[in-house]
Amino acid sequence: MPLDRLGRPLRDLRISVTDRCNFRCTYCMPREIFGRDFEFLRREDLLTFEEITRLTQLFAHLGVEKIRLTGGEPLLRRDLESLVEMLAHVKGIRDLTITTNGSLLTREKARALKDAGLHRISISLDSLDDDVFRAMNDVNFPVQRVLDAIDAANEAGLWPIKIDMVVKRGVNEKSIVEMARRFRGTGHIVRFIEYMDVGTTNGWRMEDVVPSREVVERIGREWPVEPAHPNYFGEVAERWKYRDGEGEFGVISSVTQPFCGSCTRARLTADGQLYLCLFATEGHDLRQGLRHRASDEEILDAIRVAWRGRDDRYSEIRSSETAGLAKVEMSRIGG
Ligand code: SAM
Ligand code: SF4
Ligand code: SF4
Fold this sequence. Notes:
Blueprint: E1 12-16, H1 49-61, E2 66-70, H2 80-88, E3 95-100, H3 107-116, E4 120-124, H4 130-137, H5 143-156, E5 162-167, H6 175-183, E6 189-194, H7 212-222, E7 225-227, E8 238-242, E9 248-252, E10 265-268, E11 273-275, E12 284-285, H8 287-291, H9 296-308, H10 314-317, H11 330-333
Helix pairs in contact: 1-2, 2-3, 3-5
Bound molecules: S-adenosylmethionine and iron/sulfur cluster (SF4) (2 copies).
């Protein structure tokens, strides 16, 4: 089991299954950049389900226990439940989840994913205010359909459902308490995510970040809250419990309280590039080996060498000097 240069093991793999999306969230795929002329990956560039499964087996061999399917919008990939079924059988994988914007999550799809072996799901939702939500997804998508998707996931038993909200100053701050109110007592866990400087196209500014401390304070003013213990080492969300027993919420503070020291995550793009940090500028090509008949041992070696050389800790060293780096886009590397 390889350790990186900062002594961190490899435990989680986020797999992007497509770089395309049917939303144009302003903080992720601004439509001025991701417009008609944008060149997305071609079909033949994408790893097949068999290739993804083979890599997952090899990663599991190196200690990966958690797999998250993401994108772009993962449910745009046709027949995703077949991939889920293949991955659910990989020995060593304890946790298999998807992050989705919910737009394509019908009752049938949620049921098919659950039956295929999906353990849990995270659904992104930035506001309960329909106007604010439509403006943020920038494709005029109504909030009610995401709420329906959450119900569908609930009925299918994909618990606990995580509901991820990126908080942007002056845009959806008002939704913080509304989201907490709506999902308190439901068993679903809202996670408030600090807006991050991923990629180079979203025009990120520190002033647009709402620090998690402030999120906790705002919610704490409505209902008394207290910190809860992490579920496991390296958990990205800091957990908070409502003292009246109505459940919990989380905050993900990658900007104001970085957690690189315990970061055990690698990311695989839809075309088989391995990235060792969300803010990396370059990946390691694994598709080449897959398509040129490399042996398992050769691919394992390539992953080991990459991981052993890893010294990424971008969030801890974020500064004016790192601001100009040509970082990979979120929609490509997967959130
Ligand atoms: N399309 C799916 C979705 O939205 O859930 C999966 C991919 S998306 C890139 C994964 C997560 O990253 C989403 O919860 C999204 O809100 C979050 N995200 C995207 N850009 C972000 C940014 N600049 N800062 C913080 N979170 C971001
Ligand atoms: Fe699409 Fe998800 Fe990015 Fe929004 S955050 S544009 S839904 S990939
Ligand atoms: Fe991990 Fe990179 Fe994020 Fe730090 S900045 S927590 S190393 S992905």
